[in-house]
Design goal:
about 375 residues; Outer membrane lipoprotein wza fold like; wza like fold; rod-shaped
């Protein structure tokens, strides 16, 4: 058998093998209908395809990712007042009457000489006996002592203040750098101040879903929204007994699959990532194999699946896609171009065809 015959034989063997492989690849190829007619006939009822256009991009986009609804907890500092509680220590000064101010001696501090609010919510005071103070503000206690001491002291000048705040605390737990308990004082304590006093948010913290347990119910606060946008409702005033928990952030991922240069995972982090950015992060479309009219974003909406379709055959498509924000668990899929399969086959046959042609030329010369 001469060289030409041998080359021709291997050409047909190679062609048959490549066509067989191509046929298998075509059968296993994952596709998704790009045309509205095919979509309406081939897809189940719970799948809704939404073509992305300049007119509907704002409606189709789910908007910026954020935590729970705006907190309803009070935020006004102007209405804050501290109510004395059990365990607090009151410093009571009666001017020109040191025997009432420092009965234990001048060397003792206010904490040592102050009046401790006992379990029944009262303090003992000379001449007056038990004075109930728990649940009251300092000004009320001061007025009562002034009125009652007038029976024993002419025109008493009295100053009452809390020397130690022991009655009420808030607990800061979770993903902060220094979890601790903080006292509630006459100065209102906001959520941000409490977290800063606890060393600030840890690197792993989810600032969008901070919980505040008050009594028997929990409220959720998007502290990140306050930090970035100044929304005051997300920085409430804390009350005694509150338990603040900062959760650890769960992974926020989207998935880029199909005919893209580097299929895989995109970490959305805490910021917004557009469809264009995600595709660029994974190296862009595999232009030799991708069908630019078939860029789909699959999003689970509980009772249905929304499939957003971007037709990237026009230059403005990726500009439009910068306005489409990916959400956690979105799946971006770029389908393959059917014509690319034929191009792949031809590409693989070129070397064999070239070798056969070269053998023919040599055979003709013999």
């Amino acid at each position: 058998m001469n060289l030409f015959r041998i080359s021709q034989y291997w050409f047909f063997v190679s062609l048959a093998a490549l066509l067989a492989l191509a046929g298998c690849a075509e059968v296993s190829r994952t596709d998704f209908p790009t045309n509205p007619t095919a979509q309406s006939t081939e897809l189940p009822d719970y799948v809704r395809v939404i073509p992305l256009t300049p007119e509907n991009i704002s409606l189709s986009n789910a908007g910026p990712r954020q935590g729970h609804a705006t907190s309803q907890l009070p935020t006004a500092r102007s209405t804050w007042q501290y109510n004395i509680g059990v365990g607090d220590i009151l410093s009571i000064i009666v001017w020109d009457h040191p025997e009432l101010t420092l009965p234990a001696g001048p060397q003792r501090s206010q904490l040592e000489s102050g009046s401790i609010v006992n379990e029944s919510g009262a303090i003992f005071y000379p001449y007056l006996g038990q004075v109930r103070v728990a649940g009251r503000i300092v000004g009320d206690v001061q007025r009562e002592l002034t009125e009652r001491l007038q029976e024993y002291i002419p025109d008493p000048q009295i100053e009452v203040k809390v020397a130690a705040y022991n009655a009420r605390k808030v607990v800061i737990t979770g993903a902060v750098n220094a979890p601790q308990s903080l006292p509630i004082t006459n100065i209102p304590l906001t959520l941000l101040e409490a977290i800063n006093a606890s060393g600030g948010l840890a690197e792993s913290a989810d600032g969008q879903h901070v919980s505040i347990r008050r009594g028997g119910s929990s409220s959720y606060v998007n502290l990140q929204n306050f930090l970035e946008n100044g929304q005051s409702s997300n920085n409430p005033i804390l009350h005694g007994g509150d338990i603040v928990n900062v959760p650890i952030a769960e992974p926020s991922l989207a998935f880029i699959l199909g005919k893209i240069k580097s299929p895989g995972i995109v970490d959305l982090g805490s910021s917004e990532v557009s469809l264009t950015e995600a595709i660029a992060l994974k190296g862009g479309l595999d232009e030799a194999r991708a069908d630019a009219s078939g860029i789909f974003v699959f999003r689970n909406q509980q009772e249905r699946i929304d499939v957003f379709q971007l037709d990237a055959t026009t230059p403005l498509a990726f500009v439009l896609a910068t306005k489409f924000t990916l959400q956690p668990d979105d799946v971006v899929y770029i389908i393959s171009d059917p014509a690319a399969r034929w191009n792949e086959i031809i590409g693989q046959l070129i070397p064999t065809i070239g070798a056969v042609r070269q053998a023919q030329l040599i055979g003709n010369d013999l």
